[in-house]
Amino acid sequence: MNAAPDASARTHRVPVRWSLVLAVPLVLFAIVWLRRAEPDYEARIAPIPVHGQVGERIQARSFSVLVKRAKLAGAYRTAQRALDDAPPLVRPNGIWMSALVEVEGAREPVAISARLRTRDGLLYLASPITRPDIGGMGLQARRIAPGLRVTGAYFFDVPRDRLQGAHLQFYADAVGGIPPGLDHLVDVDLGLDAPAVRKLLAEAPPILDLQ
Amino acid sequence: MQDTDRDVVSTLGHPLARAAIALAALALLAIAALGGFREARVRQQSLPQVGAGQIAASDAFEMVPLCAFTTDRMPGRRHPDAGKRYVVLRARVVNRMEMDWSGHLHEDVVWPADGSGRAVPAEAVLRADDHSLSAQLPPRVPALLEFVWPIAQGAPATGRWGLYQRTRMRRTLDTGENAWLQQAPGTLLVLPVGTHCAQVTA
Q1: Mean pLDDT lowest for which of A133-137, B29-33, B164-168, B183-187?
Q2: How far is residue A18 from each of residues A15, A23, A25, B81, measured CA to CA in Å?
Q3: Nearest CA of chain A to the CA of B107: how many Å?
Q4: Contact (CB<8Å) A41/B177
Q5: Quick one: three-class SS letters along chain A?
Q6: Please, is B102 exposed, middle or buried when counting C-beta atoms within 10 Å of its C-beta (0-12, 13-18, 19+)?
Q7: Global pTM value
Q8: Partner residue opposite B176 with nearest CB, options A40, A90, A123
Q9: Residue A185: inside a domain
Q10: Is the Cβ pair A125, B129 closer than 8 Å?
Q11: Is B31 exposed, middle or buried (0-12, 13-18, 19+ CB in 10 A)?
């Protein structure tokens, strides 16, 4: 049986522990601050860059790549297909940049995608292999067998005024055009300083025949 | 009475707690007296409106509608599609994002079909020069595009389109990744619908 509460128990007050009252907002502030300071998802799974130059074979985890040269063109003339009236002229919105590349899969079949990264961080995905359609020479996201060196090209529709300082980037098995996380991202410095860009632009034909 | 019960009772007996309870009760009474909670009414706001040659912009895209027309064939096809009609909006579009998320454009340009309030994305977005389907939209390069919607035979083609606002969220709540998220309707594009557009020019 419970004893009857005495008078002192009825007037009992919960003591206010001011140290705890102060600790609660401090802990809440710390939680919010730590949560905000936490590296975001993209930073945690960011691809691992592997740097290189034009003319150098660069080995990544699942492929290797050698950029031979890059050039510009105003438009491409491609081979006439069955229903075309004439050989199609494939125009860009800016200017076409092509990169002649040799790629090789390391262990298993791999689809290697490319993009151009400008100095200010804008990304230009290589055009799909249907544009321009040059048969087996287009390499964008084309699956290649391991152990066979394949030479081909990637094409980029880029603005003329953002070529300076641009880098080429290659990555395997892209998801929606994005490099997969925690895998190698090959970054090739094209050496495009102001004179090099002027030279490329001066040499760019208005129409390049790819037939 | 157990210790915890005694604590609760004594806390409720505290003058501050009593004042808070009284205030909450008064607030409830006031809300009830004012008619209680009800669903907020959607405010009808008029969207900014642009015409041919004027700029409509979201954070993600800048768009200049140029002309609109109806046709009996999908642009680029040689022959009419039997029993089909299309309304085509031609526009110059600039991607303001950091890379080609052109799928967003497909979601953001809509046609309020048959005036019922249903916003329909285009069936196809084509390059205006060679009508290829693989219309890429690299950043900061103006592209001339054609947005194509099928319409019922004999139905009038309303010359009104909508461009949604889209903004970049640094960290979305669901995935924690940054993303370009579609927001509210942004701009109304109003153009006369003709039977053809002038020659394609960049």
Answers
A1: A133-137
A2: 9, 8, 12, 79
A3: 17
A4: yes
A5: CCCCCCHHHHCCCCCCCHHHHHHHHHHHHHHHHHHHHCCCHHHHCCCEEEEEECCCEEECCCEEEEEEEEEEECCEECCCCCCCCCCCEECCCCEEEEEEEEEEECCCCEEEEEEEECCCCCEEECCCCCCCCCHHHECCCCEECECCCEEEEEEEEECHHHCCCCEEEEEECCECCECCCCCEEEEEECCCCHHHHHHHHHHCCCCEECC
A6: buried
A7: 0.81
A8: A40
A9: yes
A10: no
A11: exposed
In a domain, A26, yes or no: no
Question: Where are chain B's structural domains?
Answer: 3-33, 49-194
Residues of chain B contacting A132 with CB distance shorter than 8 Å: none
- Enter the ipTM: 0.81
- For residue A171, being part of any structural domain is answered with yes
Residue A152: pLDDT band (50, 70, 90) is very high
Nearest chain A residue (CA) to B174 = A41
* Alpha-carbon Rg for chain A in angstroms: 29
- Our CA-based measurement puts residue A107 at a distance from the nearest CA of chain B, in whole angstroms, of 30
Residues of B in contact with A89 (CB under 8 A): 130
- The residue in chain B having the minimum alpha-carbon distance to the alpha carbon of residue A122 is B98
Q: How many domains does chain A have?
A: 1
CATH of the domain at A72: 2.60.40.1240
Q: A14, A35, A36, A93: best mutation site toward chain B, by most B Cβ within 10 Å?
A: A93
pLDDT at residue A78 is higher than 50: yes
CATH architecture of the region B49-194: Sandwich (2.60)
From B37's Cα to the closest Cα of chain A, the distance in A is 31
Find chain B residues with C-beta within 8 A of A14's C-beta. 7, 10-11, 14
- A12 part of a folded domain: no
B144: pLDDT strictly greater than 70: yes
Which chain A residues are within 8 Å of B172, Cβ to Cβ? none
